[in-house]
Every structure is written in structure tokens, then in C-alpha cells.
Amino acid sequence: MLMLAAVGYSIENAFGPVKYTITYFVGGLGACAMSAYYDIATSHYVPSVGASGAIMAIFGAMVVLTIRNRSSFDKTVGIRSLIVLAIMVFGNMSAGVDWMAHLGGAITGLILGFVLTIGMNKKYYILINF
Question: In the list 68, 97, 101, 127, which could disulfide-bond 53, CB 3.0-4.6 Å?
Fold first, then answer.
């Protein structure tokens, strides 16, 4: 939740409250779907509790906003933001952590980030520098 507080406010300012809420809740559903699919496919059931998948969706959207506004940054910011997202998703692959929910949330956030920024004026894009 600390990471959500650190980045969520900026993402909400860039997206607006409606798109932000859509990203959060649909990201949570995408995380749940990925987790359930993995559990069923492997018969390896991990408890899925918390909002980390939805938070990963917010970070996925942040990566898209950063990439779409890359002209405001140096040339490597898009790659660095993807690396940070990958570390956040795959850095939690320990026993008892539902990392597939993290992956599902991140993928959903990336997709929603691209869809929800179609036609958005660049002056509303987020300005985050890593």
C-alpha cells in the first residue's frame, strides 16, 4: 500500500479519477483471473489475498504513461520503467506469494494503460523520472 500511495496520486492526476478507478478494479480482476488460471492449470493452489495485483496494474499503467511521454525524459526511461516493473513482479516469486496475480495485474495495467491513453493529450501525461 505504501507503493500505491507513492505513485497512485500521480497516476490519478494523469488519468483522472474514473480511469484510475477502472484501472485499479479491472487490474484486480485481471490479477485474479491470471491467478485462477494458473492454479487450475497446475493444480498448485496458492491463497490469493490482498490488493497487490491491482497495485501492479497501477504500476503497469504508469509504465505506459512514462513510455508514451518519453520525449520528456532521456532515451532510456522506457526501458528502465519496464525493468522496475519486471523486478516488482518477478522479484516476489517466493513461496506463499501469488506472483501470477502480480503478473496478471501488471499485464492488465499495461493493456489498460495503452487503451485508456488513446487520444489523450500529452500535457496530461504523468511526469515521473526514474
Answer: 101
